[in-house]
Amino acid sequence: MNNVLPWHDSLWQHIQRRWQQNRLPHALLLCGPPGMGKALFAQRLTETLLCEKSPLEGILGPPCGHCKPCHLLSVETHPDLFKVQPAEPGKQIPIDQIRSLIQFCTLTANYGRYQIAIINPAQAMNRNAANSLLKLLEEPPPNTLIMLVTHQPMALPATILSRCQRLDFSQQESTVTQAWLQSKISSQLNAQLLLKLSAQAPLAALALAETDGMTKRRELFDSLTQLPSGKNDPIRVAESWAKLEAAQVLQWMLSWTMDIIRYATTAQTQHLVNQDRIEPLQHLATQLDLHSLFDLLDLQREAYRLVTGNANVKPQGLLESIAIAWVKLGTLSVNP
Ligand SMILES: [Zn+2]
User: Fold this and answer.
1) Which of 89, 276, 284, 301 is most exposed, with the fewest beta carbons within 10 Å of its own?
2) Shared-domain flag, residues 150 and 225
3) Band (311; pLDDT cuts 50, 70, 90)
4) Is 65 left (phi over 0), alpha (psi -120 to 50) or beta?
5) C-alpha of residue 70 to centroid of ligand 1, in Å
6) What is the reported pLDDT for 292?
């Protein structure tokens, strides 16, 4: 097997079957939450298709790692691979980059195999860029493979989606991902909990385990959940949050708020995501006003949308209004 991540197996076999039947699609849409290894999959497939020793005996991969194409890929100068990405994270992909891609696709493969393009993240294409790509997808040159990598497929035009074969990374056997993760982390850590906290994405869960993510999460949780009691200054608290990565901060806040609402509406704990914080979440659910919690959920969702959708947004102001809303929540509490 060529792929190193065990939850990629079935998708890899699917591609291998298509390839064996000489029906490799011209365009693939690799979608699923961040941390599933979609870009790694695209990279492995590229290495396999471009290696001159691979494929062997009808099996896709693994790449030999020694031939010229393998070497060129390792130093990122292979002429038959074209990567399209924003100039800076969070920026758009403008039409010029897609024009260059179209130009690339008119060339013949230097090494006589495939011309491969990877667009990541594909949802960063602006409207003109997407329209331009559509024309290429409508009349793909032979021996071309275009891979669109995205965790927000719905942000792409339906016309583009309909011209790509979809590889969905979101549905994974939890036994496979859990076993893999547990083998990578200290036995003191709980793989199941880490996966739950990371939308079941194994690489995101591993990053959480390997960094001080869990400590930051605990500090954030404490500072947030103390706000309704009125003991902390919301502006100071927001200032400390702004030092962390805003998208991650908001993701955690959303997860806690949803857990509080879940418990407030069902009085059951087994469906809560934050299994290590059940008691304080239960306590808040009995104290806080449900309608205001839903308003707060909307406020946080909107902030998340702004922070992840636009690189120019300054998160501090958004975090301040969220902190103030949490303080207000305390003044509206059910049992003051
Ligand atoms: Zn090779």
Assistant:
1) 89
2) no
3) low
4) left
5) 4
6) 93
Any residues with CB less than 8 A from the CB of 88 and at least 6 apart, and which?
Answer: 311
Beta bridge partners of 29: 148, 166
Query: Residue 49 C-alpha to ligand 1 middle, in angstroms?
Result: 9
Are 178 and 192 in contact, with CB atoms under 8 Å apart? yes
133, 168, 203: which is the final residue of a domain?
A: 168
pLDDT in tens, 22-77: 899 999 999 998 999 999 999 999 999 999 887 666 788 789 999 999 999 999 99
User: In this prediction, what percent of the chain has a pLDDT beyond 70?
Assistant: 96
Q: Above pLDDT 90, what percent of the chain?
A: 74
Are residues 94 and 164 part of one domain? Answer: yes
The number of domains in the chain is 2
| 252 CA to centre of ligand 1 in angstroms | 43
Q: Separation of 126 CA from ligand 1 center, angstroms?
A: 36
Q: Which domain holds residue 141?
A: 6-168
Instruction: Let me know the angle formed at the C-alpha of 292 by 289 and 298, rounded to the nearest 5 degrees.
Output: 145
- For the chain, the average pLDDT equals 91
Q: What distance in angstroms lies between residue 14's CA and the mean position of ligand 1's atoms?
A: 22
CA of 133 to the centre of ligand 1 (A): 30
- Number of neighbours of residue 238 by Cβ within 10 angstroms: 23
Residue 222: CATH number of its domain: 1.20.272.10
Taking the centre of ligand 1 as the mean of its atom positions, its distance from the CA of residue 61, in whole angstroms, is 9
Is position 181 within any domain?
Answer: no
**DSSP per residue, 164-189:** SEEEE-S---HHHHHHHHHHHS-TTS
CATH number, domain of 136, equals 3.40.50.300
Q: How far is CA 130 from CA 117, 123, 303, in A?
A: 15, 9, 26
Please tell me whether residues 152 and 257 are part of one structural domain.
no
Residue 298 CA to ligand 1 center (angstroms) comes to 51
The pLDDT-based confidence of 336 (bands split at 50, 70, 90) is very low
- Which of 52-56, 104-108, 176-180, 268-272 has the lowest average pLDDT? 52-56
Query: Ligand 1 mean position to 97 CA, how many Å?
Result: 28
